[in-house]
């Protein structure tokens, strides 16, 4: 086992360009320390993928293609000498580390502390759809905002961007695990239906948010999570959030966020980036191992559903390009998976 196939890019090109992705060969890496070598069976594609493809190699070309992708299911092929959580042959799932080579390759090294045992009883594609979005939603709701079913059951949450990857999981955790009253935003009939399927109590159009919220009887809510664009909705958030409420966001604002507007209500604001623990090797990095195992248990028991909605078969340049094209359109619902 010397070389493997990988798909990457040498410069940032529009997705319709033939060379926006290229197939190439590279050596199969050897795990060390707490690393696992995983033989990948399926991956899912997230907005972070196309954002990095569009921006990371602008105005430059590198000789060795850059490999991206952050969501995978696979089998442990080999382990580093410091591994204690897994053994060869284990089926695992994970989102990975944004500072390392991604999942768009046949084999990948990943630190065992950010890996979980893949859920039993669901398909490989269904499992591949879940790690990044489930980690993001879980960390935002539990680790950042510190919500709990015991204390917060029955309270209201507004989820901006309910039909996307993170929104699809956040609706389910908020409703089925935390027992919140869930209001999600969606504007197309298909995305409204999807949000309801995920468990949303109400779905409102994000256009003219304040009026649409008032129409369903909510002038204010206890919690808001923004999965789209905090700048676009900020003025509405300031009005909609209850005194002593909480706002969480994963978006990338292009303008400063005026937190002073939250002071009179003593509202707290939380950022969430799923890659933080791996990027900074935080003391609690292993939390992602435990979160993924919890999510796998929820999936196995049917307490939450996989958000897979589209599956492309085959590890090919054409399929990676098609996945990016669909995500860039901004109209995808749920998650898109590529089976190897």
Automatic annotation (TrEMBL):
Protein name: Zinc-type alcohol dehydrogenase-like protein
Pfam families in the record: ADH_N, ADH_zinc_N_2
Recorded superkingdom: Bacteria
SUPFAM superfamilies, per the entry: GroES-like, NAD(P)-binding Rossmann-fold domains
Keyword flag Cell inner membrane: no
InterPro entries given in the database record: ADH-like_N, ADH_Zn_typ-1, ER, GroES-like_sf, NAD(P)-bd_dom_sf, Quin_OxRdtase/zeta-crystal_CS, Zinc-ADH_QOR/CCCR
Domain Enoyl reductase (ER) stretches: 17-338
Gene3D superfamilies cross-referenced by the UniProt entry: Medium-chain alcohol dehydrogenases, catalytic domain, NAD(P)-binding Rossmann-like Domain
Compartments it resides in: Cytoplasm
Family: Belongs to the zinc-containing alcohol dehydrogenase family. Quinone oxidoreductase subfamily.
């Amino acid at each position: 086992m010397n070389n493997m196939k990988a798909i990457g890019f040498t410069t940032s090109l529009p997705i319709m360009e033939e060379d926006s992705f290229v197939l190439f060969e590279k050596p199969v890496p050897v795990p060390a320390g707490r690393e696992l070598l995983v033989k990948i069976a399926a991956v899912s594609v997230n907005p972070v993928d196309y954002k990095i493809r569009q921006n990371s190699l602008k105005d430059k070309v590198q000789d060795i293609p850059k490999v991206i992708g952050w969501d995978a299911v696979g089998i442990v092929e080999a382990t580093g000498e410091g591994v204690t959580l897994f053994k060869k042959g284990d089926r695992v799932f994970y989102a990975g580390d944004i500072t390392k080579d991604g999942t768009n390759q046949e084999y990948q090294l990943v630190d065992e502390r950010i890996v979980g045992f893949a859920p039993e009883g669901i398909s490989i594609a269904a499992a591949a759809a879940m790690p990044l979005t489930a980690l993001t939603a879980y960390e935002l709701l539990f680790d950042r905002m510190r919500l709990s079913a015991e204390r917060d059951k029955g309270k209201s949450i507004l989820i901006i961007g309910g039909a996307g990857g993170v929104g699809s999981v956040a609706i389910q955790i908020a409703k089925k695990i935390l027992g919140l009253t869930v209001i999600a935003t969606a504007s197309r009939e298909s995305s409204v239906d999807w949000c309801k399927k995920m468990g949303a109590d109400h779905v409102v159009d994000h256009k003219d948010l304040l009026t649409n919220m008032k129409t369903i009887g909510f002038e204010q809510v206890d919690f808001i999570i923004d999965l789209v664009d905090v700048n676009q909705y900020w003025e509405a958030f300031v009005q909609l959030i209850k005194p002593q409420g909480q706002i969480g966001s994963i978006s990338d604002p292009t303008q400063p966020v005026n937190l002073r507007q939250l002071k009179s209500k003593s509202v707290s604001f939380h950022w969430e980036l799923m890659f933080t623990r791996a990027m900074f090797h935080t003391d609690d990095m292993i939390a992602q191992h435990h979160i993924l195992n919890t999510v796998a248990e929820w999936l196995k028991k049917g307490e939450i559903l996989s958000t897979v909605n589209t599956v492309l078969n085959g590890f090919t340049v054409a399929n990676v390009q098609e996945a990016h094209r669909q995500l860039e359109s901004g109209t995808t619902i749920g998650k898109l998976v590529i089976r190897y």
